[in-house]
Amino acid sequence: MSIKIVFRSILLAGLALILTACSLPFWPGREADDRTTSPSTNVTPGEVAVINSDVIVTSPLSNETIKSPLTIQGRTQLDTGTIFFVIKDVAEQVMATSSVSILDTGSNWNPYTATIEFPPPMSQAGWLEVYSLQTQAEGLRDVVRLPVVFEQFKSPTVKIYFQNTEGDPNFTDCSIVYPVEREVTVTDQTNFSSQLVNAALNNLIAGPTETDKKNGFISQLPAEGIRIQKIEVAQDAAGKNIIRVDFNQTLQTGVAGSCRVTGIRAQITQTIKQFPGVDDVVISIDGKTEDILQP
């Protein structure tokens, strides 16, 4: 092959790459990014578009603020199959799904547009996943995952447990406790995460509100000075989920009487056991589990 032919081939290949790049839906100043990034509200919307192989997402962009209903737009090099959309909260819980069939327009890049509705999430940050599925045998491909910020979201709620003079005025069973709800602010909403457990217990330690008290709720925990020193989430040899919580000495300071001790243990245990999957709760004081909270 002559040098002239080789040079001509290289020149044509380079020209083809330039033309292909020009056909992509980007403009100066915008970068393509095929990496997954963490949800964040610190990135200016519009900085990054996301491309992964045959699928491009042009709207919304990484870390863009979104609301329901959300319009999703992009392009794909596929000419058959389906594009799927999944919205997840920060705990990876699926909030909504949608899909659209790919329409072959005869061009290299076929546009797609879809609308997805989702309920108010329990966190401000979340994820949008876009992927294609040509055949069941092939499975998922070209997964694009980008962080989003929800314009509207609900603070998660937890239950805390108190005794109640209206539900059991004579305290015939001191282990019976009743729930009230509190809103909490946490970033990790995975089931029985240490953040959720800590938020619930701190609200329990804070005691009943004035409204709670008017409705008969009382707490057996000492009113001041209790600190959570450590929360440990573990599994035993049998695979059971155990939450271990260590408190300072104030938890048992001035505590006397079997009914009060039983009430303290019940309030703490039931507050933690509200989270599905918790099998057992171990309470300790300064690392000790024996000879504590004695009547």
Keywords:
295 residues, alpha+beta, Immunoglobulin-like, five-stranded mixed β-sheet, 4 helices, 35% strand, disordered N terminus
Topology at a glance:
Elements: H1 3-23, E1 31-33, E2 48-52, E3 55-59, E4 64-66, E5 70-76, E6 82-89, E7 94-101, E8 110-116, E9 125-133, E10 141-150, E11 157-164, E12 178-183, H2 194-206, H3 210-214, E13 217-218, E14 228-235, E15 241-247, H4 258-273, E16 280-285
Parallel strand pairs: 1-2, 4-10, 15-16
Antiparallel strand pairs: 2-3, 3-5, 5-8, 6-7, 6-9, 9-10, 11-12, 11-13, 14-15
Helix pairs in contact: 2-4
Pfam families: Germane (PF10646), Gmad2 (PF10648)
Protein name: GerMN domain-containing protein
Domain GerMN: 197-294
Explain the overall architecture.
The protein is of the alpha+beta class. The protein folds into two domains: 126 residues, Immunoglobulins (Immunoglobulin-like, Sandwich); 129 residues, no CATH class. It is 19% helix and 35% strand. It contains four helices and 16 strands. It has a five-stranded mixed sheet, with no helix packed on it. Helix 2 packs antiparallel against helix 4. The radius of gyration is 28 Å and the shape is elongated. It starts with a helix and ends in a 10-residue tail after the last strand.
Q: Helical residue percent? A: 10-25%
Could you name the ranges where pLDDT drops below 50 across 5 or more consecutive residues? 3-8, 10-49
- Please tally the β strands and state the result: 16
**Helix/strand/pairing category:** alpha+beta
The pLDDT mean sits at: 82
Task: Encode the helix/strand succession as letters.
Answer: HEEEEEEEEEEEEHHEEEHE
Counting DSSP H or I runs of 4 or more residues, the number of helices is: 4
Largest sheet: 5 strands, mixed
Percentage of β-strand residues:
25-35%
Query: What is the end-to-end distance?
Result: 97 Å
Chain oligomer state: single chain
Q: What is the general shape?
A: elongated
Sheet with most strands: strand arrangement: 1-2-3-5-8
Total discrete domains = 2
Radius of gyration: 28 Å
Protein name: GerMN domain-containing protein
Domain GerMN: 197-294
Organism: Candidatus Buchananbacteria bacterium RIFCSPHIGHO2_02_FULL_56_16
InterPro entries: GerMN (IPR019606), Gmad2_Ig-like_dom (IPR018911)
